[in-house]
Recover the amino acids of this structure.
């Protein structure tokens, strides 16, 4: 089953609780939490306190996307009863294997993300260990950017490797996803679809979530 993970980076923070309830009622399955430190990416977003303020206000699981340096130091802060994934960037982790094991030891699923210019081959020796691979289809740091099509080839390759070796990771895509290209990424093999501005920037958020889910159902 393909799941929709709206990114609250594009939400109206003055009414974050309400907007999260809205996407939950509309049928979104996951909340994507973009954490930026102003070092790994040229922007600062929010930290664990903001995410934890949603605990109990929604039943949806959190998909925590850490766009930060030294993620080992901060991963534990993002562990809650609702945390499904903690995702770190390959480019930020000189000891990626250790970081992945650390996240798993915290009792949550561990994911790895790669930037558009990073080759999939950098993950050759970690694919067996991860629960999720996040393919960035924009350069991380900001919402509302244009989809970079080379991400599709990475998704297709990940799907093939997964099937060939019977691996268990989910495939996620993040950046520039809208109603116009979501079908294509699902066909390529994506199972977790992040959408920020396409959901929270829509004139009618409820209707937009449902439009995405309708496309998932017929894909
Ligand atoms: C980008 C973030 C994304 C972002 C996606 O650095 O990782 O999750 O919120 O936003 P859209 O869907 O607007 O490209
Ligand atoms: Zn993200």
């Amino acid at each position: 089953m393909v799941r929709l993970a709206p990114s609250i980076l594009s939400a109206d923070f003055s009414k974050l609780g309400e907007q999260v309830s809205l996407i939950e009622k509309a049928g979104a399955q996951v909340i994507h939490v973009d954490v930026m430190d102003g070092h790994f990416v040229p922007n600062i977003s929010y930290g664990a306190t903001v995410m934890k303020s949603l605990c109990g206000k929604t039943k949806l699981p959190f998909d925590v996307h850490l766009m930060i340096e030294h993620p080992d130091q901060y991963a534990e802060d993002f562990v809650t009863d609702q945390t499904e994934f903690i995702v770190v960037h390959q480019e930020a982790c000189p000891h990626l294997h250790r970081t992945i094991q650390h996240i798993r030891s915290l009792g949550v699923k561990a994911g790895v993300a790669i930037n558009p210019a990073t080759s999939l081959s950098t993950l050759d020796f970690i694919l067996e260990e991860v629960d999720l691979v996040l393919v960035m289809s924009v350069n991380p740091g900001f919402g509302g950017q244009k989809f970079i099509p080379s991400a599709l080839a990475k998704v297709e390759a990940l799907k093939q490797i997964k099937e060939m070796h019977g691996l268990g990771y989910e495939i996620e895509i993040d950046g520039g996803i809208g109603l116009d290209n979501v079908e294509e990424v699902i066909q390529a093999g994506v199972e977790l679809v992040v959408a920020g501005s396409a959901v929270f920037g829509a004139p009618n958020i409820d209707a937009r979530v449902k439009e995405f889910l309708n496309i998932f159902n017929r894909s």
Observations:
- DSSP finds eight helices and eight strands in the chain.
